[in-house]
Amino acid sequence: MSLALQVSNVRASLGDLEILKGIDLEIPFGEVHALMGPNGSGKSTLCHVLMGKDEYSSSGSALVGGAEIIGLPVQDRARAGLFEAFQYPVEVPGVALSDLVREMGEVRADPGFDDRVSVLAESLDMARFMERSVNGGLSGGEKKRSEMFQLALSQPKVAILDEIDSGLDIDAVREVAGLVEELRSDDLGIVIITHYSRILRYMNVDKIHVMVAGKVVLSGGPEIAAELEASGYVDLQDGGATVPEPKVRTPFDI
After folding, report:
1. Apex 159 CA angle, 155 and 160, nearest 5
2. From CA 130, how far away is CA 5, in angstroms rounded?
3. Which structural domain range is residue 47 located in?
């Protein structure tokens, strides 16, 4: 099994506050994994630490396609094959989407890049937005589609989708889930960070990991999402005191 992302004992603090308390995750190429948990569990912090947000102090190891990224500048993490789709994509006034795409092409130096832009812009209905400012005047669903367009063009090894279902109506959630499924490939591992199971209903998620209080406390198959929908995170939070030891769900537990 070849791993797109291997996270080993990643810890992170913001000042004196310890947020991540030893995260271990393995995301194989070709799979889609969901990272779930209550507010404040550390899901987005893990995303920020992996992407290199500099206000966190961190330790541990994170390999993207076998290459260590902890300690690298943000741009080198991106070059190593790490991509983030944002919960709230920002508007970039004065920078057209076509300008951003052109810069991506120059960095990649890929002779087939322009052809791929044309095909993807048409298939994702992004051609009409190419001369607009990045995310300028787009709806929530259109912004997320633009993120998927950029992801497909970037061809990373690992895509971290940080709450891409946030703020979307049910039709947009279904559309974004379909786009993620279309992006599946043997050269990509995908991590979806989400609070809710609704987007997972429209996808074939390979594995779900649940974070509570800075630790992964449960990993298993897609049936976990239905259980969380029914019971919430209360049992896993253990009254907000100690966090239970990580448990790996096996077929015999179902």
Report:
1. 160
2. 32
3. 3-90+156-253
